[in-house]
Amino acid sequence: MTTRERTYARANNQRAAQYTELWIVGRPEDIAAMVQVASASGRLVYLSAPRPMGGDDTRQRRYLRLRTR
Predict the structure, then answer these.
(1) What radius of gyration do the chain's Cα atoms show?
(2) Where is this region: Disordered (predicted)?
(3) pLDDT tens-digit profile of 21-37?
(4) Which residues pair with 63 in a beta bridge?
């Protein structure tokens, strides 16, 4: 395989596996609704465990990875 062919194959693989990575901050029930929609659409790839914001803040943050296609 030539260098040009390898570069072309790598570029095609990267395009096929494009993701959006987000940190979402909000109330647990709001995050649950967003996650449910992302999961139902088939775009949800990864969801982290909920993490408290700290202090008196009752919100949580979660990391999501979504497919763009």
Answers:
(1) 17
(2) 48-69
(3) 889 999 999 999 999 99
(4) 23
